[in-house]
Amino acid sequence: MWTESFSARRSGRGSRRTRRGRSSRKRRSRGRRSSSSSPPGAGRPARPWRRSESASRENWSKPRSWAQSSPAGRTRRCSGPRPWSSPGSSRRNLAGFFRPLSPSPPGLLFPSHRGRGGYDGRGSPVHRLPVRGTQTGAGGAGRGTHKEVQVGYRYVVIGAGRQGVAAAYDLARQGDAERVMLVDRDAAIARAGAERLNRLLGWPVADAAVGDASQPQTLTPLLAKADGLLSAASYRFNLGLARLAIETKTHMVDLGGHTGVVREQLALDPEARKAEITVVPDCGMGPGMNVTLALAALDLLDEPEEVRIYDGGIPENPRPPWNYALFFSAEGLVNEYEGEAFFLRGGKVIPVAALSELEELEIPLLGRLEAFVTSGGLSTMPWTFAGKLRVLENKTLRYPGHCALLHGLQALGMFGRAPVRVGETTFIPRDALIALLDRSLSYPGARDVCVLHVWARGRKEGRPAEARVQLVDRYDPETGFRAMEKLTGWHAAVVLALAVRGEIPPGATPIERALSGERFLAEAPPRGWHISSSVVFLG
Question: What CATH number was assigned to the domain covering residues 13-24+76-282+490-511?
Fold first, then answer.
């Protein structure tokens, strides 16, 4: 048996380097495109799980003069004074659906941090940020060794809930951020999230604004000033936000949650390529990180044939009868428990009903758990690997007995969307179920544990072999982030940071093509994730 710890693999990039000014940053984040003679999709490998970092960057990382080569209509964003940093700019021209909430210098939508680090010789603000890799533990509030670096990218996070705040934290700490704007319909939630981030990080990197994702055009002035957008809002809004990201030429990722919506977003690939921005839907824990770790398992075999993924977030201290607690939205949970999943069997994509194919298995470090089918866990991976893998499956992990309770609710019709009349009152069962689960399964202070376990079978060195990759993460008492928040928000933040740096080619790209297992493993150690792997020869 051969065993290797991925956490020992360091990215080798060292600490942050001093930036060369904002225009140089724009060239990195926006100016990577292939030669005009290259056909569409040039540089993308035939085997998406074998994609190396050097191959993906070959045609996209050459610096160029923005003023000389940018398409018509875009030089306005890089020439002259920055609208968000000009002392004479005004907030009064902003749409009424969002407005800055946190205290900031007058006239600044993204206020520059003037109280720490000063300015360099070119008048660009300089912050004192933690050197990458010096923090210990999974959370790390960013205290420790510091060095002078010039400010970097500007991010907008739509949705200041659990996962949105966690994503903003990682962007601020690991994404070379100059500013992170938290946007939410609820002003108090947005402000509380920004204040929490500034407190954890020790410098005022986060600001807050009111915004409505259901009316994306009202967010245009905000996105026009940003390098990257992360949508932590409901999947219902992601298609409209993707179109707005293309219009404003802003890189975008989201937390997905509905494969049908994701496929509509991916159909925007020609428009995203033309705008020279990257759109990657369905990031997060699952789908998202589970797919990325599956790619890491495929890398361990020479000829992979089967992949089975088990993932889930469960409470450390389960409470009967549900033995579960909400660590993300109740609506998202119900969405997973209904509909169909799509697997590969016999190399072909087939639908499988949610809450079916129950099994029990032993998971290292957690013991005996049950696993069953939930919808959307693989996103578009089955279609990408159709004909390349014989079997591809994904099941959700829970404590034993949970699935039986869900079958009871299903038999009662509680997942139904048709109105039901009770006396003089009419209600929709599914809406009532979401409200009841939100009330019954929300435990303040509940701590969670998340597991992603991947089994892959095939051949290695001409012999049958089985590869396993596993990540187990827990609640972090130092930052207060739950494991679900970290795995979901930080995975999306990793993808967005790579996109704005130009490490992912332009276009609307599925997660299995946007982020290789190898590249993600290099991002794991700075976040305190220990990803174990092993290969066992079967004969």
Answer: 3.40.50.720
